[in-house]
């Protein structure tokens, strides 16, 4: 099993990796398919299914599909150009993707929210169709946005069930479970980060790997800074106010004050995470970690480590991210990182496990302590539902990232106090999360049909 660090961490846009980034990526893939066809296409249609339909408006799925069919991609997204494009599409009823003729696409008519049962392959399904001059469908493809910006076609989903996409044995450390990871680490005498780096160097040059890791942190940290500087109301109609900037200003003012409470450090950690997720809620640029809805946890813990832990060194950032991605890959491979599939335990829970592992590693933890840190963090998110109010990635998502980051730091600290031996293996915890997600009612899995989403103030 090989998932690159650049699969787990991807630069994209808010508010959702599964509901915004994924559909936009799917649309881009469909355009590439159309460019290869030997016949002329005149128009486009799209239908959203399952969670993409139920919470699509709140997550900006409609905008993502529209803009994706116009040629926009998450990694190069330009917000100002996108707004102008949306106005033009709605006014003309057509999109003009690169290297294709103008195509009929009226969002009010050609973008369907299907509130029936989800498609069989995944809770997040969309069908993209091309039509001829008469309006008849002449090409179509079903895509599944499975979390973290990952997108698979129907055929790819079937192949994934049968065999991993990456060839086995191709990488020097092809661990698929935490037990295998620890066994390989002991035999090779290498850290988790070193093994992950060796795997990455099969597909990336050392220079590209290091530059890519540095870029990931640069985008993460810039997102924190924008979130701390911003003020005002978040879009979407809930009238949620940004709070990270004001909290940050308050704790900055308390610096050096003898009466500042010791637990103030929790405010620092939570504020870094909330800054990221407020930016995400506003549709800003974030890094999936492993998803947009959980994007604040890993950056917050890194920033806490760099700014507040004596001896922290930016030279170890690569080890943090590589270790965290190794844990994220295990969770994705053996369970899920999708809130629509397993609830928020799969998003913030996975992010907390990744952050705890990364922090433990750069603070000198052994591979066994790193695995223990990840297990503690994930274990204490088990059962967490994904119940965003109005389908917006705001309530409870923003604060939930703050608490997830605090739990990650606590988990790493507990693990470092031990010797790596513990009762519940990470593999078993991941399996418990998968089973819990399978048993969880659909109304608690990113459909906004239960939990906090239906228990809101009347005025």
Describe this structure in words.
This protein is of the alpha+beta class and 459 residues long. It has 2 domains: 17-162, D-3-phosphoglycerate dehydrogenase, domain 3 (60s Ribosomal Protein L30, Chain: A, 2-Layer Sandwich), CATH 3.30.1330.90; 178-454, 2-methylcitrate dehydratase PrpD (Orthogonal Bundle), CATH 1.10.4100. Helices cover 51% and strands 10% of the residues. The chain has 20 helices and 9 strands. It has helices at residues 5-8, 17-35, 51-54, 56-59, 61-69, 79-92, 107-110, 154-162, 178-188, 192-200, 206-229, 244-253, 264-281, 297-308, 317-334, 339-342, 348-362, 367-379, 397-417, 426-439; strands spanning 11-13, 43-50, 94-95, 103-104, 111-114, 124-131, 137-147, 150-153, 285-287. The protein has a 5-stranded mixed sheet. The chain has a two-stranded antiparallel sheet with strand order 1-9. It has a two-stranded antiparallel sheet with strand order 3-4. α2 (17-35) runs parallel beside α5 (61-69) and α15 runs antiparallel to α17. The mean pLDDT is 95.
Ordered list of secondary-structure elements with their pairings:
Layout: H1 5-8, E1 11-13, H2 17-35, E2 43-50, H3 51-54, H4 56-59, H5 61-69, H6 79-92, E3 94-95, E4 103-104, H7 107-110, E5 111-114, E6 124-131, E7 137-147, E8 150-153, H8 154-162, H9 178-188, H10 192-200, H11 206-229, H12 244-253, H13 264-281, E9 285-287, H14 297-308, H15 317-334, H16 339-342, H17 348-362, H18 367-379, H19 397-417, H20 426-439
Parallel strand pairs: 2-5
Antiparallel strand pairs: 1-9, 2-6, 3-4, 6-7, 7-8
Helix pairs in contact: 2-5, 10-15, 11-13, 12-13, 13-14, 13-19, 14-17, 14-19, 15-17, 17-18, 17-19, 18-19, 18-20
């Amino acid at each position: 099993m090989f998932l690159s660090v650049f699969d787990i961490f991807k630069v994209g846009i808010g508010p959702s990796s599964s509901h915004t980034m994924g559909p936009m990526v799917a649309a881009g893939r469909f355009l590439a398919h159309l460019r290869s066809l030997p016949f002329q296409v005149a128009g486009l249609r799209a239908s959203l299914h399952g969670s993409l339909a139920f919470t699509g408006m709140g997550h900006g799925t409609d905008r993502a599909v529209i803009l994706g069919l116009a040629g926009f991609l998450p990694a190069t997204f330009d917000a100002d150009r996108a707004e102008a494009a949306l106005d033009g599409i709605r006014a003309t009823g057509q999109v003009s993707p690169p290297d294709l003729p103008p195509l009929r696409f009226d969002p009010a008519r050609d973008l369907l929210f299907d509130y029936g049962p989800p498609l069989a392959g995944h809770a997040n399904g969309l069908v993209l169709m091309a039509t001829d001059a008469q309006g008849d469908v002449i090409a179509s493809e079903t895509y599944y946005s499975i979390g973290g910006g990952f997108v698979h076609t129907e055929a790819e989903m079937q192949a994934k069930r049968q065999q991993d996409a990456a060839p086995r044995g191709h990488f020097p450390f092809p661990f698929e479970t935490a037990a295998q990871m620890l066994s390989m680490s002991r035999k090779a005498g290498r850290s988790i980060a070193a093994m992950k780096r060796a795997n990455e160097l099969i597909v990336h040059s050392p220079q590209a790997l290091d530059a890519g890791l540095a870029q990931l942190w640069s985008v993460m940290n810039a997102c924190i800074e924008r979130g701390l500087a911003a003020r005002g109301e978040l879009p979407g109609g809930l009238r949620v106010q940004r709070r990270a900037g004001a909290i940050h200003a308050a704790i900055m003012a308390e610096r050096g004050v003898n009466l500042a409470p010791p637990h103030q450090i929790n405010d620092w950690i939570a504020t870094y995470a909330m800054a990221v997720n407020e930016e995400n809620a506003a549709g800003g640029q974030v890094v999936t970690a492993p998803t947009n809805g959980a994007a604040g946890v890993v950056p917050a813990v890194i920033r806490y480590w760099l700014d507040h832990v004596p001896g922290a060194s930016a030279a170890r950032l690569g080890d943090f991210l590589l270790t965290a991605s190794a844990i994220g890959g295990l969770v994705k491979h053996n369970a899920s990182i999708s809130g629509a599939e397993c609830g928020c335990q799969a998003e913030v829970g996975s992010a907390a496990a990744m952050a705890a592992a990364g922090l433990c590693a750069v603070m000198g933890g052994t591979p066994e302590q790193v695995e223990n840190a990840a297990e503690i963090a994930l274990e204490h998110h088990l059962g967490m539902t994904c119940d965003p109010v109005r389908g917006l990635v705001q309530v409870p998502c923003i604060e939930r990232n703050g608490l997830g980051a605090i739990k990650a730091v606590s988990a790493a600290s507990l693990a470092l106090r031990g010797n790596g031996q513990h009762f519940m293996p990470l593999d078993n915890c991941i399996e418990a999360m998968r089973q819990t997600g399978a048993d969880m009612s659909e109304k608690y899995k990113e459909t906004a049909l239960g939990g906090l989403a239906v228990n809101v103030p009347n005025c």
